[in-house]
Amino acid sequence: MRAMLKSILPLVICALACVGASAQDMCPPRPAPGNLVVNPLDLYSQNGVLNLSLTLENSFGSDGFEHYCYIYMYQGQPVEAPTLRLNPGDQLQLSLTNDIQAPYDHYPRKMQMKMFQPPRDGSKPSDTDCNGGVINGGTTNMHFHGMNIPPVCHQDDVIYTLIQPGDPPFQYDFEVPPNDSPGMYWYHPHAHGNATTQVDGGAAGALIIEGTIPGTQNLPERVFVIRQQFQNPNSWLPGPNQLTVNFQPAVFPAEPSPYVNVQYGQQEFWRVANATTQAFLDLQLQFTAGVQQLEVVALDGIPLQTPIYESDILVPPAGRVEFITPGLPENQEGEFLTNGYNTGPVGNPNPPQVLVKLFGADNPKLKAKPAPPANPVKPPADRKRFAGLMNLTPTGTRGLYFSEQTVGSNGPTQYFITVNGQKPHVFHMDDPPSIVTNIGAVEDWTIENHSGEAHAFHIHQLHYLLMDVNGVPVPDPELYDTYTIPSWSGSGPYPSITVRMDFRDPQIAGTFVYHCHILDHEDGGMMEKIQVNP
Ligand SMILES: [Cu+2]
Known about the structure:
Blueprint: H1 2-23, E1 42-44, E2 49-60, E3 66-74, E4 77-80, E5 83-86, E6 91-98, E7 115-117, E8 133-135, E9 143-145, E10 170-175, E11 183-188, H2 195-200, E12 205-209, E13 221-230, E14 241-245, E15 248-250, E16 259-263, E17 268-274, E18 281-287, E19 290-291, E20 294-299, E21 302-310, E22 313-315, E23 320-325, E24 334-338, E25 353-361, E26 396-406, E27 413-419, E28 435-438, E29 442-449, E30 455-459, E31 464-469, E32 472-473, E33 479-480, E34 482-485, E35 496-502, E36 510-516, H3 519-523, E37 527-533
Residues 455, 516, 518, 521, 526 line the site of copper (II) ion (CU).
């Protein structure tokens, strides 16, 4: 018997290794540097419904990075991370299969990889993926970033929704609010402790609410999803990393830049999502003649009341910006770049980087936006969501702050977001809510940064109105779902923002989270729950 065991053991090992090896081929190849940047595949809703299946796979790529890929099967071929295009009032029906295979990561992880989320009170045992459970390295779920939809299982819950490898396909099914404005959102995994690894691996895609943003009619449309990949995403010290544009490495001058061909003199409509794990992008467009003014028409998926003209725009991790580019003059070239950002004395480097080069032609093969399928677009029932927020008297105020505590001389670091008067602590999945409020409330929150690096404040389920920066009122307040709070120098007043939170929409009743959108801060505990009672 022992001899028998011995003889089959190599077979067993080989079988496991072989399964592992074949699973390592699951993500499709990504574009090499120096190529034309093309828009992600567009999937349009039909007759009020967008129905699709995605499978989340992982593999170690030949480029030396761990890939996590949302696979959509298109004409028999795997395509990564399509753009989901829906109209206000449409239904998104997304079936997500978790096919993540161990090893989850090519490098050892810094984070504790086994957490437990106890089931929700009164939950039904039958709906296993909605009842919490163990979060290990292969657990996932999906967050529809910026969408103002219910924080419930099968819609946009990230606390109790845990999809394990090998589980049956999990169904997401929600209605885009009928009063949603046109704009850009994005989807990504949000299982606590795994967000960094999976988003770093590329698991992120654009979601666009259709409709016309004034001034963009008939313009060629480009969708850029900027990602970032680290060789060791879970290291305490950030290691080699690179930005990518629609999965193409932007590493100029080490390699030629990603590029687009534009028609001379033709304005274009660009929709850019910062889907990086931690890069603050200071976006700018330069032509041979110099820096260009961008006509910014939407931020974080919400059209601006009037366009603003900017020569550069800071987009935090998870933020989106939509703008009209000026036409490239004849015989000039262009560069779309990030100027870099100083994240502070203990922050990580955010160096300048050329993202996309622009080459002009009189008659380029311009890929204008394809006409969406002819189906009736329901007119928005009420565009007044968040309406009048500026002039409301808040029902309450709160103060919160970001802070960090380094354990040892050079890490690890503990990350906190704390309500004034409470004790800073590293977030755990089974924590009670730090904030309890009610539907109907309108609250002003002042959020300070007490740490030596920048953070990006994000709350699920709603946008907030940016009222003050460092105590100074903002002249024309706009809505955001993610906003940068710069680092504190170590003396003087703390950098701060004051935002107006709108809890009037009964759809968002429930428990959800707010956190820093630097994903290793979020995974590292810089997150808390809020409970909004109906
Ligand atoms: Cu942070």
